[in-house]
Structure formats: structure tokens, C-alpha cells
Amino acid sequence: MGTYRLHVRQKIKASKDKVWDFISSPRNLKIITPEHMGFDIITPGLPEKMYAGMMIEYQVQALPGYKTRWLTEITQVQPGDFFIDEQRSGPYKLWHHQHHLAPDENGTIMTDIVHYIPPFGLLGDLANQLIIKRQLNAIFEYRRIALERKFP
Predict the structure, then answer these.
(1) Residue 42 near residue 59 (C-beta atoms within 8 A)
(2) Residue 85, class by beta-carbon neighbours within 10 Å (0-12 exposed, 13-18 middle, 19+ buried)?
(3) Is residue 74 a contact partner of residue 49, using CB atoms and an 8 Å limit?
(4) Is the pTM of this model over 0.90?
(5) Can you tell me the distance from the alpha carbon of 52 to that of 31, in angstroms, rounded to the nearest whole number?
(6) 24 HSE (CA, 13 A, CB side)
């Protein structure tokens, strides 16, 4: 059973404050998630901005025909700079996702670092090689395009 790491870096043509304002709102998660994932936030009455200790529950289609619930906790927030979300229950054995923002001469650099462990031990390792890694890369590519549309 392995621990895997995904590292994605994106340049966004907007100020760090504007990017932070967008990504720190839980309501915008659906905008940057592919439609085929059937992503829906279940938690009622979410505030405008996330905060440390905030719990967000989603429903997501992890695989075709398989919907699951995913509960994440926002464990750390440094307003304007970064936040971290960690899975409390859901499709992975471990999910730890760091979102970092840094100013750039023409906008903002957003860096995501995800550490994850697939479920099912050795079968999960095989699934990671065949499906999961490719699926995660496609999700982040979709997000890259969505953010380019949001901040042209």
C-alpha cells in the first residue's frame, strides 16, 4: 500500500486577493469540478468563507455508477496564502490537500499538493496506476481550464 503525491502548479492572471476570494468560498467548488463527477455539496448553510475546523460534506461520483459521500475538514487556513483540507470519510484511505497562493509579476501562482492513499491495499495501488492517477490529473486539468475562464 503506497502513499502517492500529486503536485500541480498553475499561473492565474489575477491578483492573489481575487484568486483567494474565489477559492476560499466553498460554494465555488462545484464550478471547478467536472460535471461528470456529479459533485454536490450536502452540508447546508455553508458560510461565504472557509475557516479552520469547517466540515464540508459532498456527494461525488467516484466511478461511473458509483456515488459516494465525502466529508472533508478544513484543518488550516492562512487567509490569502493557503488552506489545507483533509478527508475525514470518503473514497480514499488518506486525502491531504494543500492549496497555496503566491504573487507573481503577472498574477498569482497556485500550487496544489495532494498526498493520498487509495482504498483496498494492493488492489488500490493497482487501481491508482490504471485509473486513479489519470482521473486526478484530468480533474486538475479541468480545474485549470475553469480557472482560466474565470480569470482570462
Answers:
(1) yes
(2) buried
(3) no
(4) yes
(5) 22
(6) 21
Distance in angstroms (rounded) separating the CA atoms of residues 80 and 147? 17
Cell of 33: 469540478
**Predicted pLDDT of residue 64:** 74
Domain count, the chain: 1
Q: Which residue has the cell 487501481?
A: 127
CATH number of 29's domain: 3.30.530.20
Per the prediction, the chain carries an average pLDDT of: 94
pLDDT tens-digit map of 21-58:
999 999 999 999 999 999 999 999 999 999 999 999 99
Residues in the chain: 152
Range of the domain at 113: 4-150
- Output the pLDDT for position 95: 98
